[in-house]
Every structure is written in structure tokens, then in C-alpha cells.
Design brief:
It is a single chain. The protein has 148 residues and is mostly beta strands. It has a single domain (6-146), classed as Roll (Pnp Oxidase, Chain A), CATH 2.30.110. 10% of the residues lie in helices and 50% in strands. It has two helices and twelve strands; from the N terminus they run E-E-E-E-E-H-E-H-E-E-E-E-E-E. A seven-stranded antiparallel sheet has the order 3-2-6-9-10-5-4. The chain has a three-stranded antiparallel sheet with strand order 1-11-12, with no helix packed on it. The protein has a two-stranded antiparallel sheet with strand order 7-8.
């Protein structure tokens, strides 16, 4: 699967206890246009899994080619406690955090969660979204890349 280039996003939520959680994800897919549904695949062993699935909502911030630092920060388990430190955020309709630097973002309410191997497939209904011009960050063969 490393030969399949993917976009890179940060999936973030506000858990039932109010704390922020989030992780880097490249398994983000459009599911349906009517209603507007997307899915994210989350490892069940990740620290953010329960926060996102039990929080009832999540935001997907699509990273730009200049955001490799954010991809690494949210992928590194050692930085978990400080992931959001110094990162400019805005709050989505659902209360989920959106990275202000995002190339695009989708605010979603959790609609379904399916178990699949060691991951959960989380289907979200998009309640708000926006985008700006720019180049996306790509993950291919174990490396971050840009389209340029």
C-alpha cells in the first residue's frame, strides 16, 4: 500500500471530557455526496481513538505541502501531550478543533463506527467545510512529498 499516494490530514476531536485529541491520518475517503459522508480509518490502539469515536464529532484538516511539521507532530506518540501547543486553531460547528493552516477542512458528526482488523472505520457526516488554494502534502513510499 506504500505505492498508493495519499493526501495527509490531521483528524482531531474534543473528547467527552473536553480534552483535545488528534492524529495524522492518510486513510481519509469520500463515501457519499448525498448525504455528504467521509470516512477515516483509526488504529484502535491509538491514544486518540476513543476520544474521536466517543466524542461524537471530529474535524479533518487537510495539510498543505508546507505542513510536514504538523504531520510529524501529530504522528509522533512522544509529542502527544503537546500536539496542540502553539498550533493556531479554530473551533468547528461541532466543537472539534480545525488547524488554521489547513488547505481544506471538514467538520463531521460521527455517524457509524465499524471494526475492521486492528482499525475502526469511522464514518462521519459533514456538517461544514471550507478550502483555500495551495498544494497538498502527499505521503508516498514512506515519505512526505509535494506534487511539485
Amino acid at each position: 500500500m506504500g505505492n498508493l499516494p495519499t493526501g495527509v490530514s490531521v483528524v482531531a476531536s474534543r473528547g467527552p471530557d473536553g480534552r483535545l485529541c488528534g492524529l495524522t491520518a492518510n486513510s481519509v475517503t469520500s463515501v457519499s455526496l448525498s448525504p455528504l459522508l467521509v470516512l477515516v480509518c483509526l488504529g484502535r490502539e491509538t491514544a486518540s481513538h476513543g476520544c474521536i469515536t466517543e466524542g461524537g464529532a471530529f474535524a479533518i484538516s487537510v495539510l498543505s505541502a508546507q505542513d510536514e511539521d504538523l504531520a510529524l507532530r501529530f504522528a509522533n506518540s512522544a509529542s502527544r501531550a503537546r500536539r496542540f501547543e502553539g498550533v493556531a486553531l479554530k473551533e468547528a460547528v461541532t466543537g472539534s478543533p480545525i488547524l488554521e493552516r489547513a488547505l481544506a477542512w471538514l467538520d463531521c458528526r460521527v455517524r457509524e463506527v465499524y471494526e475492521a482488523g486492528d482499525h475502526s472505520i469511522v464514518v462521519g457526516e459533514v456538517v461544514a467545510c471550507d478550502s483555500r488554494d495551495g498544494e497538498p502534502l502527499i505521503f508516498f513510499r514512506g515519505e512526505y512529498r509535494s506534487m511539485g
